[in-house]
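Help needed: design a sequence for this.
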């Protein structure tokens, strides 16, 4: 059983019943285009938001219970998003590519080793010129909890140094059910460079 399956027995604090505002704003700005892969999709609110706007969407998560809840939401809302129990470190196994990848809270639970594996995994599914949008905790949050990790802009840039272009990293809010003001976060737009 995935460690997050037990968390989804109830409602985890990041499962806010709506998409993260950072992704709503990206959609309003026209930054999210084409087909969308949501890595670490949880119960699917961000994926369903983009499906509702006509994107071809696949959401993946290692927590089977979260995926089941996402599928139930999609069915209730009459949306065509697909969901799979899948490991984001093996995206090549999906056998397809996407124009956009979104990440709400996956990157900040990965170890250093897994971060480099994840960046490599992303290259297998993101079209050259495609965009990866990541929302993660920033180092401006207080506390010493091991997860989620607090991330610096430098750590993000280092992970995506080879084969990527970091378009921007800007302050954002990671909304949650515990703190009305949310947590300090970074929103990063990272493009896969065309080869050659």
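Sure. Designed sequence:
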């Amino acid at each position: 059983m995935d460690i997050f399956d037990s968390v989804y027995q109830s409602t985890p604090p990041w499962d806010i019943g709506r998409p993260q505002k950072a992704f709503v704003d990206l959609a309003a700005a026209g930054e999210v285009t084409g087909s969308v892969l949501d890595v670490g999709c949880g119960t699917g609110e961000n994926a369903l938001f983009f499906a509702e706007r006509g994107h071809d969407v696949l959401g993946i998560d290692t927590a089977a219970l979260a995926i089941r809840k996402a599928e139930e939401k999609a069915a209730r809302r009459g949306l065509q998003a697909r969901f799979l129990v899948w490991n984001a470190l093996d995206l090549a196994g999906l056998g397809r590519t996407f124009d956009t990848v979104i990440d709400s809270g996956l990157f900040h639970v990965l170890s250093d080793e897994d971060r480099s594996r994840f960046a490599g995994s992303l290259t297998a599914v993101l079209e050259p010129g495609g965009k990866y949008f990541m929302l993660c905790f920033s180092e401006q949050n207080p506390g010493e909890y091991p997860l989620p990790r607090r991330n610096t802009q430098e750590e993000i840039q280092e992970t995506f140094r080879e084969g990527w272009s970091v378009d921007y990293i800007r302050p954002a809010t990671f909304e949650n059910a515990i703190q009305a003001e949310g947590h300090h976060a970074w929103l990063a737009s990272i493009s896969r460079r065309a080869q050659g």
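The chain is about 30% helix and 25% strand.
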